[in-house]
Amino acid sequence: MKKALVLGASGGMGDALVRELVSRGIEVVAFARNNNKLAMLFGHMVDVTMASGDARNEHDVEEAARDVDVIFHTVSVPYKDWIEGHPLIMKNAVQAAQKNSAKLVLIDNIYAYGRSSGALVGEEATRQPHTKKGRIRVKMQQIAEEAHASGIPTMVLHFPDFYGPNAHNTILSHTLQAVLAGKRAMFVGNKNVRREYIFTPDGAKAAAELALRDDTYGERWNIPGSGVVSGHELIAMIREQTGYTKSIGTVTTGMIRFLGLFSRDMREIAEMMYLTEEPVVLSGAKYEARIGPLPQTSYKEGLRQIVQAMKTGRMTDD
């Protein structure tokens, strides 16, 4: 891989991918809607070409993909736009890969797996989503699988919830933003439940490593975080990093459902709140057996880096 396109480069995982690829000597086209955000993030990087456009526009994606070897699809859209937006963006990415003889890597989440059985989830697990958004994710994966069958090398990577520098629109980021502003902070979900999160630079390292190998395409890969951690443990680390002494409240499923009576955005979030009570925890056994040790930054160190990024102003909206 000499040149790559990162769709959604201004988001948390997209930003981390651009930086990881550049660190490996790979030229990158960073694609997102807002050129000002791209310039703020990557304007100082000589190996990054910035391309502003709409991933839902076929022409914009094809133009950005000219002469690239691999396309990384990390685009995020608001929940309310998922039904039409995500399949269309996926098809545009596939078409751009086909026209440029490029490979395609879909950065996906855990929604397609549905409810957790309580055991670690491997790639062989049946995809049985019980939510609308989970079914949309399955549709995207099917488009990827069909593309691979047609001759476009494609892979799907499953990640848990993100956290990291510039991962602005995430559960932990909202808590940290309030903490650093000295405001009343809230934690989303039951603080007693142990869940997993992936530090975006770790996810980017794993994605780049997989994308560089020819024998990894045509498969799904689960990339877990650095173990599971409770809300109480995370809050203790946040207090240690920031000196925050105010109480941190809990956003419960009931609260989100009540707000959903008045807000479509909250109704969309309510559908996925089951993950805060019944977390899906990924197995990285396949990656470790085929590739090697997983990149895993401790939560304490990951939070330290995020706090530093937020204080220095690197965090931007996705």
Automatic annotation (TrEMBL):
Highest taxon listed in the record's lineage: Bacteria
GO MF terms, alphabetically ordered: aldehyde dehydrogenase (NAD+) activity
InterPro entries associated with the record: Epimerase_deHydtase, NAD(P)-bd_dom_sf, NAD(P)-dependent_oxidoreduct
A GO cellular-component term linked to this record: cytoplasm
SUPFAM superfamilies linked to this entry: NAD(P)-binding Rossmann-fold domains
Protein name: 2,3-dihydroxy-2,3-dihydrophenylpropionate dehydrogenase
Taxonomic lineage from the root: Bacteria, Bacillati, Bacillota, Bacilli, Bacillales
